[in-house]
Every structure is written in structure tokens, then in C-alpha cells.
């Protein structure tokens, strides 16, 4: 079937229902272009859900009128949705056509029986979200929609599956399995032509055969083609091929489709770990949620691509989707750019984590949703593992282990070319025992709370216990790779207890990356580390914030509206700006030789901090402060060198050891002296690199720059305009934030505008937003070809204009 874009000319409104309409006219519809986040435009308030960042839950409806030509009569027509959050109900011409409870599955609705040919038709989609997520989920038709049309004999959606079972330097065997369906009254016989093309479009292999298909009995055409001198896909050279399949009869082409794939091999064993094309690969991993920051959950292709680009530039080579299937757009980017993927299916199975979550639908829908996940991923070289769950509550009992086996075996049945893992938190199967032990000991619950506040140490200790070993043994045994959340204490223990067990740190703490990465490097059976989290996200507010003990009351209230919006955790903030933890990680990975200066806020000097295990330190890479000169300050310099020298205004502050033995940190206590701060790293007595900070002074200068000045003139592209407040020399004025107004002219709309401030009441859909530490980000979506201008205005600054061309 041939897909075509179906994102334009939709309308949306909060759903009122037919009986409510008797009481008064429903609210007006608003024109939107998909993908669209229905929740994002709603006003945050105290009655909203805290885990969602205080956005309100609700029900929504979308509609679109579309013409179906008479010549489509006798053909197959389907509407494909890549994701609707949540509990989607689809109606065509007011007749029920299909549904999908899960908010992350691609699904198609057969439209043939409901269409009026030669006339206009209406499709309507209802969806809703109600206390069903532990983080900001968004709502509505937030991923792409396609119209798919094919003849009575056709290749169904995602009907081409490609594997490369035998690869060497001289040639690759490419197995192409194509499903052919026929819905006519009698059997059909068609020719099947297959072409494989390289990245430049050159044909490198062909095959032709014939297939007879009976009505209602799909036929799989499986052909082996041979590509000589194959370009192998890996993270450094992500070479891609395309396979084109066409069906022909005596009248010509009946149907055609294409699939993109890569040629690569995977091997796994406890000694060498994961090998791609025979080369060992350690996973430098980032967990990521699905929202796109200042544009909400709208899964626009360029937003997904940009995230992958920035994560890779920060040193990551792998993504774990948290905790739901990745979008096709992000997987496309991972294939093109060279990013490995653990694609995760579910955050819960049969036990609820929130009142109305997917556990209510899991027993009925899990197989279809797992099938959708694998069907989406099958041809993608970036996907190396499927994760069947995350911190599943029932894993510690026999029923939970049986469910794990069902999911793992179903996944292998669907795709035997990749590995199966599960993000297991070893504490959860023992949680009832831990609580019972605390109660029976006569200790008050404050001790349990204190233990949980030090969650990383407590989880590690409990995860390595004999009881945890017994409770999780069966659940781990069904996996190819044991995914462990916050359980690095098991890594070396399990090398002795379970010599065949292969481990990946599916979720770890940023502050432990140095010790965790050493475990990864020293143990072949440990494949890599996935930090929580690579990119900050909306909702689950404040888990990464740092506060002070002398403000404990205010810190305890920080989870109440309207203070918190984001998790405030992650190497990269919601605008794409790297935080200090990102540079530290890059140094630990061995990818950065220059040191990095992280200054703890002078106002916090000497004060006891309060934070969760997911927090970093209260540091900023800046030498611009409102504090008076002479104020005491703690400075961390991250470096893998032997020694770091800190120099302020030409005078040496001191020298301190760094490198792995000192957790890649050189620490200095000094005073704030405005001017120039330089860190110089030395290895073997010779300079290895340096990092420089300069105090911003003088008048504000607002600057703006687009990530690209030429964009595609379609709704899948975006231009990201970074706005900064600087001084005349280009130093960021992080302490002089201003309200910035943005105006967009030309064929484009302002898709989102905001900052990385985790504590704000401002909206991302308004044209005005206050900078945070001197920065803000405007996202512009083209609507047609032409010249687009983005003008930013702020008090005490000259206006600045950026020009973008949509082509």
C-alpha cells in the first residue's frame, strides 16, 4: 500500500460528548496540523496532575474532512496512526472504525466499509488521558498520520522484512520477506520484482519471481539476494540500503513499497559483550522520554532528529526509550546518524502504577502492541535490543516471571535477530519484605524514609542480597540480557553466581557514571550504562533539583503548584543546552581532553544541600555572579588529566590532582574575583587542554541564531532559534534575565517558545517568555515555501532578527 501524508487540515477541541451538547453549544474547533499535543495548550493549575507538571487531564476530539475519489472504489484504503494518546476511538462518517487503548502503538484502521466514494468524508478521533502516566505524556494525535491506498492485491503496511543472516567483507546475504495480500473473489498471480539500492541510489542486487495468492490467505515471498562489497552499518559509518518491491500483472504495476535497512551483524557473549560486525561496542547510553521540551509531546520529525544529533554530539552512542516505544521519526534519525537503540515496550504489565494506566488494558492488548513494536523496528539497524518492560512490580513472584517468559518468547517469535532485555529494579520484588522488616524491628518510618532518600546506596545493597538473587533469578533467566536499574552492585557478583549472565545497566544515576563506567570497561559481560536521564523532560517535577537544608520547608513544598514543571534531571536540558553533568560524562567516556569548569553557586557555599539521588550538583559553568567580590566559592574542574591548575586573573589559585583516582574532579575553595578564570589540565607535566570562563560585563546584547537557515517547506521540519543575552564580547549574561517577545512573519508559525527553567508558570505557546540563565529557545514550523523572519525583542536590548528560507 502507498502511504501519503495525512497531517494537514485537522481540527481539534476538548471533547464535550453528544448529551452535553444538548445542554449548550460545544466549544469551537481549532485548526491544527498534526502531530499535535492537545494537552500542551491547556493552562497548568493546582488541580492538574503533579506528575504531568500540573497540566490538566482531559478528553479531546479531532476531525478532518477529506475527499475520496471514485477511482478508489474497489481498492483498499486505510488510515495509519503512529501514535494517539490515549484510548483512541476512530470514527469514519460517524461509524465506529477502530480503537487502540495504548498511547504508543502504531495502528491502522481499515476505511473501505465506511467511505463514500466520489464525495467528502469525515474522520473523527476521540482520545483521553486520566491519571495514567508517571511523567508528562501529552495527549491527542501527537505522532504522524498517513493515508494508505492499495489494490486488491497489495503489500500490507510494514509488509517487507529484511534480515542479513550471513555477512563478510566480500558479500552479504540479504533475506527479503514480502507479504502479499489479495482480497479479490478468485486467486491472483503477480510478478514480484525486488531491487536493492545503496545510499547513492545505485542498484546493487535484483531478483524476480512469481507468486499466487488466494483470497484472505496472505503469501510470504522470501528471496535471498546478494550484495557484493557491502557497506556495513555501525555507529560511526551508518550506511543504509533501500529495498524496493513491486507487484506487476499484465496491466502493469499493481502495488509497490520500499524499506530501508542496514547490513550489520550482532554477536553476544559474556567474554566479549556486544559485538557489531565483529567489533566490541560498549553502550554509552541515555534514557529518554518522548516529549520534545518546549513543543510538548508533538513528535515532529526534525525535533526527534535534533535530539539524536545533540545526544550523539554529547558522547552518547545509544538510547533507551523510557518507558515506551520510540517514534518512527526518532528511529529514522538513529538509523541515519548512527545511534543504537533499546526500544522499550511497556512501563507496567498487570499491576497498576497509576490509577488508570495501561495495566487495565495489558491482559487484552499486550500481544497486539508487542507486534506493533516489532513490526515498526524490524528493519532498523539501530535497534539492537527490545526491552519488554521497566520496573515491573510483579516480577518477584511466579506469575510475574511467567509473564516475563510470555513476552520474551513472543518477542523472539516475532524477531529472532535481536536480543531481549527488561529493566529490572531488584528492590521492587522485595519492597513488601523491606517494609515488614522495618515494622517488625520497631524502627519508625523515618528510618525507612531516610533509607529511600539515599536510594542509590539502599537499592544497591538490597539488590545484591541473597533474597534479591532468589526473587529475580527466574525473571532474569528468560532474558538474553539482564537489564538492571540501579543495581551495579550485582555486576561483578553475578559474574561469579551466573557465569552466563550478560548485563546492561538499563537505568543508572548520573553521579555514579565514573564508577559504573569502570565496571563496564572491566567486565566483558557488562554491555554498557544508560543514565537517568540523557535529556530533561516535562513532568515528574523536581526529581533532580538541588536545595538547601536551611530551606527545607520551602524545598518540601517545591512539588506543589506552581513551582515545578520539569524533572530538572538530565545531561541536556529541555532546550538542548548541555549541563555540567554532560561534560563530566564526556570526560569519563574518554571523549574530551579539555577540562571543564563547574562553579558551585556562591550563595550555597558552606550550606548543606538537599537532593534526590537523580540530582547532580548545584553548579553552573559561569564566572558571572551577583555575589560581591571576595565571596567564598567552591569550584570543581572535571578532567581525566593527572593534575589541574586553576588561574584567576593571571594568578594561580592552586593545583589539585584529578583523573580517575580522584573521580575525575579537581576541587578548589577560593573567592569570587570577577574577570577571567582558567583551568589548565596537565598530563605527565605537559599541558593537555584548558577551559576559560570570563565575567560578563556592560550593556546587554541580545543575539539570536537559527540551527539552520534553510528548511524544508513542509510540516515535518522545524527551525530552532536560540536566543541569548550576552555582553559585547559574547559572554552570556546569566544573571540579567529578560522577558523576550518573539514575532514570526512569513509562511510559518511559532510552534513553541520557552526556556529550561524548571520552576515557572509561563506557557510555551505564548510569544513572550523569560530567559533562564540568559537563554531561551524559539521553535518555528514552516507552512509553505518562502522567506520567514523571526524577530526577538526585550527591554534594554536592540531587536534582533533571524531570516530562514523554507524551500
TrEMBL record:
Domain spans labelled Glycoside hydrolase family 2 catalytic: 274-450
Domain Glycoside hydrolase family 2 immunoglobulin-like beta-sandwich: 159-264
Protein keywords: Glycosidase, Hydrolase
Any Pfam family: Glyco_hydro2_C5
GO biological process: carbohydrate metabolic process
Highest rank taxon of the organism: Bacteria
Presence of the UniProt keyword Hydrolase in the record: yes
Domain Glycoside hydrolase family: 704-802
Keyword Thylakoid appears in the UniProt entry: no
MF terms (GO), sorted A to Z: hydrolase activity, hydrolyzing O-glycosyl compounds
Domain DUF4982: residue ranges: 630-687
Protein family according to the UniProt entry: Belongs to the glycosyl hydrolase 2 family.
Protein's UniProt name: DUF4982 domain-containing protein
Lineage: Bacteria, Bacillati, Actinomycetota, Actinomycetes, Kitasatosporales
Amino acid at each position: 500500500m502507498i502511504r501519503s501524508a495525512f497531517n494537514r487540515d485537522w481540527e481539534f477541541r476538548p471533547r464535550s460528548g453528544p448529551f452535553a451538547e444538548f445542554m449548550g453549544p460545544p466549544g469551537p474547533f481549532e485548526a491544527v496540523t498534526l502531530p499535535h499535543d492537545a494537552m500542551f495548550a491547556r493552562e497548568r493549575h493546582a488541580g492538574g496532575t503533579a506528575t504531568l507538571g500540573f497540566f490538566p487531564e482531559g478528553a479531546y476530539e479531532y476531525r478532518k474532512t477529506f475527499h475520496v475519489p471514485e477511482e478508489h472504489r474497489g481498492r483498499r484504503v486505510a488510515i495509519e496512526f503512529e501514535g494517539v494518546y490515549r484510548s483512541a476511538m476512530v470514527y469514519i462518517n460517524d461509524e465506529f472504525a477502530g480503537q487502540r487503548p495504548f498511547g504508543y502503538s502504531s495502528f491502522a484502521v481499515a476505511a473501505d466499509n465506511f467511505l463514500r466514494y466520489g464525495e467528502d468524508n469525515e474522520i473523527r478521533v476521540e482520545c483521553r488521558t486520566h491519571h495514567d502516566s508517571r511523567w508528562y505524556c501529552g495527549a491527542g494525535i501527537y505522532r504522524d498520520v498517513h493515508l494508505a491506498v492499495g489494490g486488491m492485491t497489495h503489500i500490507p503496511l510494514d509488509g517487507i522484512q529484511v534480515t542479513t543472516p550471513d555477512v563478510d567483507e566480500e558479500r552479504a546475504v540479504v533475506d527479503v520477506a514480502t507479504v502479499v495480500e489479495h482480497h479479490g473473489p478468485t486467486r491472483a498471480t503477480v510478478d514480484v520484482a525486488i531491487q536493492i539500492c545503496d545510499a547513492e541510489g545505485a542498484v546493487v542486487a535484483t531478483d524476480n519471481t512469481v507468486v499466487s495468492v488466494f483470497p484472505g490467505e496472505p503469501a510470504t515471498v522470501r528471496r535471498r539476494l546478494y550484495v557484493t562489497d557491502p557497506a556495513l552499518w555501525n555507529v560511526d559509518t551508518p550506511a543504509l540500503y533501500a529495498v524496493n518491491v513491486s507487484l506487476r500483472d499484465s496491466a502493469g504495476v499493481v502495488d509497490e513499497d520500499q524499506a530501508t535497512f542496514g547490513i550489520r551483524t550482532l554477536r553476544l557473549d559474556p567474554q566479549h559483550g556486544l559485538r557489531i560486525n565483529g567489533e566490541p561496542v560498549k553502550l554509552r547510553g541515555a534514557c529518554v522520554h518522548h516529549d520534545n521540551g518546549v513543543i510538548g509531546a508533538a513528535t515532529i520529525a526534525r525535533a526527534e532528529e535534533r535530539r539524536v544529533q545533540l545526544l550523539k554530539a554529547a558522547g552518547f552512542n545509544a538510547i533507551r526509550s523510557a518507558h515506551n516505544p520510540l517514534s518512527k521519526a526518532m528511529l529514522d534519525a538513529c538509523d541515519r546518524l548512527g545511534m543504537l537503540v533499546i526500544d522499550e515496550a511497556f512501563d507496567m504489565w498487570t499491576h497498576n502504577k497509576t490509577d488508570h494506566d495501561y495495566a487495565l488494558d495489558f491482559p487484552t492488548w499486550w500481544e497486539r502492541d508487542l507486534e506493533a513494536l516489532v513490526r515498526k523496528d524490524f528493519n532498523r539497524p539501530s535497534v539492537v535490543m527490545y526491552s519488554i518492560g521497566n520496573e515491573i512490580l510483579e516480577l518477584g513472584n511466579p506469575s510475574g516471571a511467567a509473564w516475563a517468559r510470555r513476552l520474551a518468547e513472543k518477542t523472539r517469535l516475532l524477531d529472532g535477530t535481536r536480543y531481549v532485555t527488561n529493566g529490572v529494579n531488584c528492590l521492587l520484588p522485595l519492597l513488601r519484605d523491606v517494609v515488614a522488616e522495618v515494622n517488625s524491628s520497631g524502627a519508625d518510618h523515618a528510618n525507612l524514609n531516610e533509607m529511600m532518600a539515599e536510594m542509590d546506596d539502599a537499592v544497591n545493597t538490597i539488590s545484591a542480597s541473597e533474597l534479591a538473587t532468589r526473587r529475580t533469578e527466574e525473571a532474569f533467566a528468560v532474558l538474553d540480557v539482564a537489564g538492571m536499574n540501579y543495581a551495579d552492585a550485582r555486576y561483578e557478583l553475578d559474574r561469579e553466581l551466573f557465569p552466563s549472565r550478560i548485563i546492561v545497566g538499563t537505568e543508572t544515576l548520573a553521579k555514579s557514571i565514573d564508577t559504573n563506567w569502570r565496571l563496564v570497561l572491566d567486565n566483558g559481560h557488562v554491555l554498557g550504562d544508560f543514565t537517568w536521564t540523557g535529556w530533561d523532560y516535562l513532568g515528574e517535577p523536581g526529581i533532580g533539583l538541588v536545595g538547601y537544608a536551611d530551606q527545607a520547608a520551602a524545598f518540601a513544598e517545591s512539588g506543589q503548584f506552581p513551582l515545578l514543571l520539569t524533572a530538572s534531571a538530565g545531561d541536556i536540558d529541555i532546550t538542548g543546552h548541555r549541563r555540567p553533568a554532560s561534560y563530566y560524562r564526556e570526560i569519563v567516556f574518554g571523549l574530551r581532553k579539555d577540562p571543564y569548569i563547574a562553579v558551585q553557586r556562591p550563595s550555597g557555599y558552606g550550606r548543606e544541600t538537599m537532593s534526590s539521588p537523580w540530582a547532580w550538583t548545584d553548579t553552573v559553568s559561569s564566572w558571572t555572579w551577583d555575589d560581591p567580590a571576595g565571596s567564598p566559592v567552591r569550584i570543581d574542574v572535571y578532567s581525566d588529566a593527572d593534575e589541574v591548575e586553576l588561574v584567576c586573573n593571571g594568578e594561580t589559585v592552586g593545583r589539585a590532582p584529578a583523573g580517575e583516582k580522584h573521580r575525575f574532579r579537581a576541587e578548589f575553595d577560593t573567592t569570587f574575583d570577577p574577570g577571567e578564570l582558567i583551568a589548565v589540565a596537565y598530563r605527565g607535566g605537559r599541558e593537555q587542554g584548558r577551559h576559560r570562563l570570563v565575567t560578563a560585563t556592560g550593556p546587554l546584547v541580545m543575539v539570536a541564531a537559527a540551527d539552520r537557515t534553510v528548511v524544508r517547506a513542509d510540516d515535518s521540519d522545524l527551525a530552532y532559534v536560540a536566543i541569548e543575552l550576552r555582553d559585547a564580547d559574547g559572554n552570556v549574561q546569566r544573571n540579567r534575565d529578560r522577558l523576550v517577545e518573539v514575532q514570526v512573519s512569513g509562511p510559518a508559525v511559532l510552534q513553541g517558545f520557552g526556556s529550561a527553567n524548571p520552576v515557572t508558570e509561563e506557557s510555551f505557546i505564548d510569544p513572550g517568555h523569560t530567559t533562564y540563565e540568559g537563554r531561551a529557545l524559539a521553535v518555528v514550523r514552516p507552512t509553505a515555501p518562502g522567506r520567514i523572519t523571526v524577530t526577538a525583542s526585550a527591554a534594554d536590548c536592540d531587536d534582533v532578527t533571524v531570516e530562514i528560507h523554507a524551500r
